[in-house]
Structures are given as structure tokens and as C-alpha cells.
């Protein structure tokens, strides 16, 4: 790589990412939003799996990669690597659209600001 960003990346930086929103994220608001997710997901390495896998070390992890959790073939074979854009997109369009056939129940977050805040919280809370 020559140190230059691809055109698509430059356009996203110039316009702001529609999946994440344009304002500064509020992780504390994201923490409040996460309460609905906490029924199925933990955030710590020792929290274990619930109806969904732990989200510990989520960012940069391929979908379907938590050892000991039985994923649907749809999610395991999705090719997704979780990053801020992928997590925001999941809640923008819903799991039934992004990963049809997966076990995650249909849920969307219509507000780009709420998605951005949730992603910011997850980024902080799931980091090693």
C-alpha cells in the first residue's frame, strides 16, 4: 500500500459514515441501550455464553468464532468480520436481512445516533 486511502474510504471520511452517524458517540448512552442485549450476550471473558455468544473481543473477530457456542450455519458461513460498520449495519437492517437463517431474533435500531452510541460502548466494553 502506498499510504493513500482508497477513494471509497475518502468519501466516507468526507461525508461521515451513514451506518455510524456523524456526531460524537456517547458510550454511556450505548451502555443503556445494551441492556436489551444483555439478556442474550455477556461482555466479559468469564461471562460465558447465553442464548447468544459472549461479545468479549468482538471487534476484529470473524462471525461464528467463539469456541463452545453453537452457531447457525448461516452466521458461521457469513464471512463477516465484526467491526464498527458491520455491527452498526446489523442493527440498521436487522439480522434476518444481514444474516438470513441465523438464530439472532429480529431487532433493528432505527436511530443512527443510537447505533453509533451502542457501537462505541461495545468497543470499550469488549476490548481486552
Structural account:
With 128 residues, the protein is an all-alpha fold. 38% of the residues lie in helices and 0% in strands. The two termini are 29 Å apart.
Give a short summary of the structure.
The chain has 128 residues and is mainly alpha-helical. Helix content is 38%, strand content 0%.
Features:
single chain; 128 residues; mainly alpha; Cytochrome Bc1 Complex, Chain D, domain 2; 6 helices; disordered N terminus
The helix-and-strand class reads mainly alpha
Per CATH, the architecture is Orthogonal Bundle
The end-to-end span amounts to 29 Å
Mean pLDDT: 86
How would you sum up the global shape?
globular
Say what the CATH topology is. Cytochrome Bc1 Complex, Chain D, domain 2
Full CATH superfamily name: Cytochrome c-like domain
| Number of self-contained structural domains | 1
Biggest pleated sheet: none
Amino acid at each position: 500500500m502506498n499510504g493513500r486511502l482508497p477513494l471509497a474510504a475518502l468519501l466516507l471520511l468526507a461525508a461521515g459514515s451513514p451506518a455510524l452517524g456523524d456526531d460524537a458517540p456517547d458510550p454511556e448512552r450505548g451502555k443503556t441501550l445494551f441492556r436489551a442485549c444483555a439478556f442474550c450476550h455477556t461482555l466479559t471473558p468469564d461471562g460465558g455464553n447465553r442464548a447468544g455468544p459472549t461479545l468479549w473481543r468482538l471487534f476484529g473477530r470473524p462471525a461464528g468464532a467463539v469456541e463452545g457456542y453453537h452457531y447457525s450455519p448461516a452466521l458461521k458461513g457469513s464471512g463477516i468480520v465484526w467491526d464498527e460498520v458491520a455491527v452498526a449495519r446489523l442493527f440498521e437492517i436487522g439480522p434476518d436481512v444481514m444474516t438470513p437463517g441465523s438464530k439472532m431474533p429480529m431487532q433493528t435500531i432505527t436511530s443512527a445516533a443510537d447505533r453509533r452510541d451502542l457501537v462505541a460502548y461495545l468497543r470499550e466494553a469488549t476490548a481486552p
